[in-house]
Amino acid sequence: MRRSAAVLRVAVVSLVVLGLALPPLAAALRPLRERVASAGAAASSGSWADEHAFYKRDDNDMSPYSWNITGTYKGSWSFAGATNGSSRFLEFVTSKGDSVLELLSTPTKISGVHYVQGTITFHDVIDKSHDRGVAQIRLEGVYIWPFRQLRMVANSGADGEPLQEEDYFLSNPYHLLRIFSSQVFQDSSEEKNRRKNSLTHDMEKHCNIEIAAKVVRVSSNQNEGEHEKYRLEGLMESPSVDDDGECFSSILLNSTSLNVEAYYNKAVNYTLMVTFISFLQVLLLIRQMEHSNTQSGAAKVSIIMIGQQAIMDAYLCLLHLTAGILVESLFNAFATAAFFKFVVFSIFEMRYLLAIWKASRPLNSGEGWEIMRRELSVLYSRFYGILLGGILLMYELHNFLRPLLFLMYSFWIPQIVMNVIRDTRKPLHPQYILGMTATRVAIALYIFGCPSNFMRIEPDKKWCIAVTTFMSIQAAVLLLQHYLGSRCFIPRQILPEKYCYHRKVEDSTNQPIDCVICMTTIDLSQRTSEYMVAPCEHIFHSGCLQRWMDIKMECPTCRRSLPPA
């Protein structure tokens, strides 16, 4: 009852304001006020029917009864006149900025009047008591659709009653995904605590914040379908309660409603992109596993490199699953993306990780199953320990999230270092190098580089250029190692001594020597590049031994370990 009475009072005040501004309409509004006092008398007099004669609609315009202004409005704010932006409670960094208005409109018992609740968020504003760059004010008021007028005042919910707009916000994917992205990618823990405090607490004691706006329907594009688009043009004033002047200068507001369906489609298209990227990564992993399907080939791959990529996919899986749980209407889309990331992480990358561990592990003939199982448990414990520790580290160092992401995108470096130390030959397939570089950086470029990303994160071109350049340099070094040698960019003066397989052999017996791999005779009178001599003095054809070393790094004759060729 108190809420209904407050609505009626605000409606009456708004109608009176309209009557003062438009004298011909004031007479038409008097029967409405009489109807509020006595609904029966107003109905019997037929004054409400006469009231419709004072406004006319365009025949091409939609019926005003269908004008539902519920939704999210994004636009700009600016000062009505020249001002330095100073105020008693807020300090405006610039003379104009961005604003977001979220409204929930519900019909009342008064025909033509809707009760409206919402919030307005100003960017480039510093609250002097909280020291932050965003100010948010709760609002309530009325929308009078016959005259397309919106009147709102500040409301903090201090009476302890929950606002109806909260239920709307909790089901609005645009609002929920903004909260999710801000908590994951932007806000620090201190800023989250500050957000709990009311920014209008002091202003409500000393200021009357009033907003008067006109609602205009905007023609929609063909891509938006049947979605109705509205524009709010109005003025925000703050007269002081104690007649001590304005709390801040008058502000002009200009906002346009957002198509939530189009925003929903953006989120769905993003999940489709992630799903397609995951499918490509599965194909690339299969190609790489076929390239290194031997024990010698798997031992050339860095286990740290694969583990770092597996941790990245695990984090992406958790993030998409959390977003799907938070935004119920988008659960299927985000859950699909999370599932594909889970497949990449848990099936393919963990399987490849285990194969690399087994290939690089020295074989002991007297080793039992218990020792192997214990070492395998240590491997998994370290992996999942790093996974959970990384989550805690990113939570504690939330303000340095982008440098941490930059560090995570250095996963090619362990493989580059391993190639130089061991002088390995072609451990990674070129398609795997190029494909993984492109797919890994694609999601980061969308989140931090796309101007119209659905997470509403401000683009950071410098960071995007830096991470793209960093990844390109790593991929270029790997390709150079693949085609020109693992140590092609290292000066020879600092390179360690390398065993030479192509050394001259003196044959004093003049007896033919057979290659035990192909079982054909080796002609030692030919060039040294035609045959290779192992450290154990066994001789093989160059092509035969190189193909053998791709499978096993041990002598085919005596089983002694062989150095890199």
UniProtKB/TrEMBL annotation:
<keyword id="KW-0472">Membrane</keyword>
<dbReference type="GO" id="GO:0012505">
    <property type="term" value="C:endomembrane system"/>
</dbReference>
<feature type="transmembrane region" description="Helical">
    <location>
        <begin position="267"/>
        <end position="286"/>
    </location>
</feature>
<dbReference type="InterPro" id="IPR001841">
    <property type="entry name" value="Znf_RING"/>
</dbReference>
<keyword id="KW-0862">Zinc</keyword>
<keyword id="KW-0479">Metal-binding</keyword>
<keyword id="KW-1133">Transmembrane helix</keyword>
<feature type="transmembrane region" description="Helical">
    <location>
        <begin position="433"/>
        <end position="454"/>
    </location>
</feature>
<comment type="pathway">
    <text>Protein modification; protein ubiquitination.</text>
</comment>
<dbReference type="GO" id="GO:0061630">
    <property type="term" value="F:ubiquitin protein ligase activity"/>
</dbReference>
<keyword id="KW-0833">Ubl conjugation pathway</keyword>
<dbReference type="InterPro" id="IPR021319">
    <property type="entry name" value="DUF2921"/>
</dbReference>
<feature type="transmembrane region" description="Helical">
    <location>
        <begin position="376"/>
        <end position="395"/>
    </location>
</feature>
<keyword id="KW-0863">Zinc-finger</keyword>
<keyword id="KW-0808">Transferase</keyword>
<feature type="transmembrane region" description="Helical">
    <location>
        <begin position="466"/>
        <end position="484"/>
    </location>
</feature>
<feature type="signal peptide">
    <location>
        <begin position="1"/>
        <end position="28"/>
    </location>
</feature>
<feature type="transmembrane region" description="Helical">
    <location>
        <begin position="333"/>
        <end position="355"/>
    </location>
</feature>
<dbReference type="InterPro" id="IPR013083">
    <property type="entry name" value="Znf_RING/FYVE/PHD"/>
</dbReference>
<feature type="transmembrane region" description="Helical">
    <location>
        <begin position="298"/>
        <end position="321"/>
    </location>
</feature>
<protein>
    <recommendedName>
        <fullName>RING-type E3 ubiquitin transferase</fullName>
        <ecNumber>2.3.2.27</ecNumber>
    </recommendedName>
</protein>
<dbReference type="Pfam" id="PF11145">
    <property type="entry name" value="DUF2921"/>
</dbReference>
<dbReference type="GO" id="GO:0008270">
    <property type="term" value="F:zinc ion binding"/>
</dbReference>
<feature type="domain" description="RING-type">
    <location>
        <begin position="515"/>
        <end position="559"/>
    </location>
</feature>
<dbReference type="Pfam" id="PF13639">
    <property type="entry name" value="zf-RING_2"/>
</dbReference>
<dbReference type="InterPro" id="IPR050731">
    <property type="entry name" value="HRD1_E3_ubiq-ligases"/>
</dbReference>
<keyword id="KW-0732">Signal</keyword>
<keyword id="KW-0812">Transmembrane</keyword>
